Amino acid sequence: MPAVQQMTYQPLGGVPRPVEVLTFDRLRELSTGGTQRADFHVVAVVDRGQGTVTVDFRPHGLGPRSAVWIPPGAVHRWDDIEEVSGRLVLFVPSAPVTAATRRLTAAPDQAPTWTVGANWPLLTAALDHLEL
User: Fold this and answer.
1) Alpha-carbon dihedral of residues 42, 110, 118, 23, nearest 10 degrees?
2) Dihedral of the CA atoms 88, 90, 93, 99 (nearest 10)?
3) Is 113 in contact with 63 (CB distance < 8 Å)?
4) Per the domain annotation, does 87 fall within a domain?
5) Which of 38, 46, 70, 97 gives 7 a disulfide partner, CB atoms 3.0 to 4.6 angstroms apart?
6) Domain count of the chain?
7) CATH number of 56's domain
8) Segment 74-128, tens digit of pLDDT
9) How far apart are CA 112 and CA 110, in angstroms?
10) Mean pLDDT of all residues in the chain?
11) The whole model's pTM is what?
């Protein structure tokens, strides 16, 4: 079994902030390709391309308009993301908690990936606002 690298949230530029947005291009620059366990949330949104992510030892396909949520402590690996474009949102576990996020994180059978349907324009607008 490969070693699992523990990832600690280190904001870009060392400036403390609870949320950070990066692209899959940047992830490819930073990633070693190994198995990781982060102490922060990762929500990735795919605009284009096909790929694979493994979350808690189960592979999941990525494609256009798909999203993946990797909660803190989940073992994961970005397997095949060479052709994937989109954005990732990293946020600390202490980021604002709402009733909806409480329900989501408490669901034991929550699938880590899903396809974004009619709400795609709202999601991309929210991502744009996070980058401001």
Assistant:
1) 10
2) -40
3) no
4) yes
5) 38
6) 1
7) 2.60.120.10
8) 999 999 999 999 999 998 877 767 787 777 777 777 789 999 999 999 999 999 9
9) 6
10) 89
11) 0.87
